[in-house]
Amino acid sequence: MKQLRRLAWLLLFVDDIFFLLGLLIIVRATFMWNEIAGMYALGIMLGIIGLIFGRKPPDSARRR
Predict the structure, then answer these.
(1) What is the torsion angle, in degrees rounded to the nearest 10, for the CA atoms of residue 44, residue 59, residue 8 and residue 51?
(2) How far apart are CA 45 and CA 34, in angstroms?
(3) Is the CB of residue 45 less than 8 Å from the CB of residue 39?
């Protein structure tokens, strides 16, 4: 029963997890291509994540 509650809680954030994993793969591939371009990609991705969390904070009632 406890495992089902954990799974249900995890499923609430599955879209965020896949989103962050996708960003991680993009940044990693850019770093493999060129280190400077990777730094730019990392900065852009962190800016995007900051904007998303700024509009919908994780503890917000609007989020879910």
Answers:
(1) -20
(2) 16
(3) no
